[in-house]
Amino acid sequence: MRVAIAGTGGLAYWIAHYLSTETFHQFILLSRAPKPHLAAKGWQIVVVDYENQTDLLFQLAGVDAVVSTVSGGPQLALIEAAARVGARRFAPAEFTGSSVLRPTVDPLDRGQRAAIARLQFYKPQGMAYTVFSCGILYERFAPGGSWSSNIGRVSGIGEEGDYIFNMRTMKAQVPHDSSGQPATVCMTASQDVGHFIVAALDLPEWPSELRMCGERMSVSDVVTVGELLRSILA
Predict the structure, then answer these.
(1) Closest Cα to residue 142, out of 156, 155, 158?
(2) At a CB cut-off of 8 Å and minimum separation 6, what does 196 contact?
(3) Phi/psi of residue 143, each to 5°?
(4) Please, are residues 90 and 118 in contact by the beta-carbon 8 Å criterion?
(5) How far is it, in rounded angstroms, from Cα 139 to Cα 180?
(6) 88 neighbors 65 (Cβ within 8 angstroms)
């Protein structure tokens, strides 16, 4: 199988890592600019222009599966090109909670709804797709936020303290469900997500969604753990 990974951030890195160490699949990394530090690993970096459909078609020729970590217009262009070259599988940049549980008006949507609509259109034509639902990436709570792991640079919630709580300033916002109970979240490490995606490439068929969860906790318990760690490190 020949795989194209769109993006070169933290999650794309782990996908490439497991493809190179645990499979015999050939793969390329699509990037807007050269990445010498990744090329030094022996990985093939292909510089692409997402606004140039001809370029995308040329670079994706012969690709069987596309895993996207880019969103918005670039991902929509990638879907079109993948369908036109006959790719059999496409994994969109949907590495959050289950898509079926998202509100109709989602302030964090960065073109995901439009991407899923295009994938549903192309599915009868032979390009299967799977949404990899993993909940919240643990890296969101890391020092420096997810940006420190080169994840979510265009998400708007990638800096330290942008999501739920700030361990450094000890401030938190705990959402509750309709019954007044603290909301529950599923969390997974980006390394595990990358490992899961690579393993799923060998499945005989792809369902519309595959779910994973490293740990499920209430938001209040997540904050409690943060308070405990802060007191230990103080």
Answers:
(1) 158
(2) 132, 134, 210, 212
(3) -55, 125
(4) no
(5) 28
(6) yes
For each successive 10 residues of the chain (234 residues), what is the average pLDDT?
96 97 98 96 97 97 97 96 98 82 64 90 97 91 78 72 79 79 88 97 96 91 85 74
Grouping H, G, I as helix, E, B as strand and the rest as coil, residue 193 is helix
Q: Identity (one letter) of the amino acid at 29?
A: L
Task: Give every CB contact of residue 198 below 8 A, 6+ residues apart in sequence.
Answer: 15, 18, 19, 22, 23
- Across 32-121, the runs of DSSP E, i.e. the strands, are 44-47, 65-68, 89-91
> Measuring CA to CA, how many Å separate 207 from each of 82, 109, 116, 125?
18, 22, 14, 16
H/E segment holding residue 27? strand 26-31
Q: How far lies 122's CA from each of 24, 145, 219, 226, in Å?
A: 28, 36, 38, 44
Total Cβ atoms within 10 A of residue 65: 23
Q: What's the CA gap between 6 and 29, in Å, rounded?
A: 6
Residue 11, classed as helix, strand or coil, is helix
Q: Which residue has the tokens 């090109």?
A: 81
Distances in whole angstroms, Cα of residue 216 to Cα of each of 143, 186, 187: 21, 4, 6
Q: Identify whether the C-beta of residue 106 lies closer than 8 Å to the C-beta of residue 113.
A: yes
